[in-house]
Write a structure and sequence with these properties.
Shape: globular
Strand order of the largest sheet: 1-2
Largest sheet: 2 strands, antiparallel
Number of strands: 4
Structural class: alpha+beta
Strand content: 5-15%
Distance between the termini: 52 Å
Order of helices and strands: HHHEEHEE
Number of helices: 4
Radius of gyration: 18 Å
Helix content: 25-40%
Number of domains: 2
């Protein structure tokens, strides 16, 4: 099982950076490992392109969030605002989606958005995005729309 996950892994500059931190013990000093290689900083456009690819994978994994019961409906944060906290939530169904894959794609997307925020020195309103109330409507998980009042 673990080997299958490794063979499906596609390295990126982001994962190379993480791997170098783990391999070198997360040292904040200069790299002393003979195999340490500096990874050039990516441009905002490169990060955005990777974000779009990961978002497409996340949405494909979610598919149509059909469920037989509300307990199969979930919301997960995806993305991060410049001053912290999630930028959005996505709703999915455990009946249709592989929860591990949804979580992995959402976490990767969040890390990429954080990287882009840092690269672009982004600012945001710092307003909190709260998890949505979820409902099951016609067999489909969805975020409950606020009542207009």
């Amino acid at each position: 099982m673990f080997i299958n996950k490794l063979t499906a892994f596609k390295p990126t500059a982001f994962s190379a950076c993480l791997l170098s931190l783990v391999a070198c013990g997360g040292s904040s000093g200069p790299a002393t490992h003979p195999a340490a290689v500096a990874v050039p900083a990516r441009t905002e456009a490169q990060i955005t392109e990777e974000m779009q690819k990961v978002w497409a994978l996340l949405i494909a994994e979610i598919g149509t969030p059909l469920a037989g019961d509300l307990s199969q409906c979930r919301a997960i944060p995806a993305g991060t605002k410049a001053c912290g906290g999630p930028s959005r939530y996505v709703v999915y169904s455990t009946q249709v989606s592989n929860e591990e894959r949804v979580r992995a794609f959402a976490e990767t997307y969040t890390a990429l958005e954080n990287e882009r925020n840092l690269a672009s020195q982004a600012v945001s309103t710092c307003s909190m995005v709260m998890p949505p109330a979820i409902e099951l409507a016609a067999g489909r998980c969805q975020a409950r729309q606020p009542s207009g009042g």
